[in-house]
Amino acid sequence: MADWYLRSNGANIFDPNSYTFVGSSAPACPGNGYVCAVRAEDNGSGLGKPNLTPALQYQITIALSTGVDQQDVLLRSLP
């Protein structure tokens, strides 16, 4: 089951270690322009990190280029 992972401010968007597990409910992510959170399966590391599949990386790219949240990617404004 896919869960949500919150990205640390300024962290690499394509590095699973940049994200912290938050659970099945989407976190609050006001605004747009920067990746806030992703919904993904666990990557199996035992550390609670997301599996950033090519499909999810594509959604991240689309979200950033359009400024619109995607099915599994939430954006936010700069903190």
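the 2nd protein, sequnce then structure:
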Amino acid sequence: MSSKPPRKFFEPLAIGAPMPYRDLPVRLERMIHFFPPHIEKMRAKAAEIGRQVDVLLGNLEDAIPAEAKDAARAGFIEVARAWDNPATGLWTRVNCLNSPWFLDDLTEIVAAAGDKVDVVMLPKVEGPWDIHYLDQLLAQLEAKHQVRRPILIHAILETALGVDNVAAIAQASPRMHGMSLGPADLAASRGMKTTRVGGGHPFYGVLEDAAPTAPTAPCSSRTPGITPSPRWSMPANRRGSRRSMARSATFPTMPPARRSSATPSCSAVSAAGAFTPSRSRSPRRCSAPIRPKSASPLKSSPRCPTAPAR
């Protein structure tokens, strides 16, 4: 696929739109507080909460019932218009592109409070084409409503296709602020088992090729192995298994403690004794992670626990 030359990459996509950032603003983003804007008492607390966190995010997506979508959008606009806290970022998570609410979310928010919103979080991003569409639309709306600074995009990867296209998504636009994994929806798209919303199954591992026995050894001499603890950076370096999930964003400046806070330790996984297989739709299929016997330090099961006894 062809790509823009650097000079064109940083040009505004609409006449009158603000110039894209060449270097993203540096801000603390250690704590992001999601709030439901359709609830009046939460809107009343927004200013107070904003003084205690790094980012206040108005959630318009899956935490909001369908009948409350319009109220949530209007509630966020009310909070954004009154927002006067430059030390705290103001974000919104809009509905996904194929929903009946996305277009109204974006057009109404940019029209009413485009200069107050720092980042639009877009869920269920599957490829650079999603970012290209949002990038162009934001530029047109910014030009129409004379927004003075570009609104950034934070992509949520919640499907296997999105994870597979992570590199192209990261390079899709100068608006790209960052990316996060949505573990629960990613697990659903892969037919995987999870034990909690917002986190992956603690007994999944990363299947990857081991280093060759000698520097000049061919790839065929590599011995595959299992890394018991899912790695937060798996999508960034495109590891082989998509069964690993990490609940953290791909900010390059994220402290090391935050990178590992959402993943189980190797000792915790080893103590479990074996991977817990996930139930597949067919009772006769086992969707347990592939685990080579020669390389895995964990105990192996003689047969698939989810298969019916014969």
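The longest helix spans residues 128-144. The domain at 6-181 is CATH 3.20.20.60 (TIM Barrel).
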